[in-house]
Amino acid sequence: MSGPEERWVLLRRPVADCIDRSGSFLDVGCANGYLLECCIRWTAERELSLDPYGVDLSPKLVELARRRLPQFADHFYVANSFEWVPPQKFDFVRTELVYVPAEYEKQYVEHLLRNYLKADGCLLVANYAEEHAQPERGLLPGSHPTRRILERLSELGIQAAGHKDGHDPSTGRKVRIAILRQRGIAG
Fold first, then answer.
1. Which 3 state secondary structure label does DSSP give 69?
2. Per-domain boundaries in the chain
3. What are 147-180's pLDDT values in tens digits?
C-alpha cells in the first residue's frame, strides 16, 4: 500500500481489532512482514501477545519479512497457500479472496478453514476495496471484483461470524474484515 502511515493504520488496524485473545497469527500474503509487525504492536496495546507467522509466494518478500522480524525468521514460509498445508494450525489467519481466481474462492476458504485453523480459530478475510466504485482495478485476471465481502461470502455459502471495518476519511476508502469460523460453511 502506498500513502502515509496514518492511512495504513486506518485501513489495516481492523485486522488486529479482530484478534480477541493471545495466540498464533498467520498472515497469508505476508509480503515484507509489516502487517505482522504492526499487529504485534497493536494487540500488545490491549495486553495480548501474538506468535506471528507468514506465508508468501515471493522468496524475496519472505526474506524481507525474516529480516524485519529476525526473532521469528523460522516462522516465514515460501509457498502457494492454495495448495500448502502448514506444519501447524493457527488461532488466527488473515487472507484475501483476490489471491485466487473467482471459481476457486469457496474451495480456497474451505481449505484454509480445514487446514490452517485450530478448532476455535478465526479466519480473517480482508477486503481492501469494500464498497469501492471500481473494485476490479488492480486485480489479477480471473479474480472476482468484490465490492462487499459479506455478500460475496454469502454467495459462496459461507456466513461470517462478525466483521470489523476501517475507513480513511481523506480518501473515502473502506476496508472490511470478515471473521469466519469452521461452522460458517454451508453444506
1. coil
2. 5-184
3. 789 999 999 999 999 999 999 888 888 999 999 9
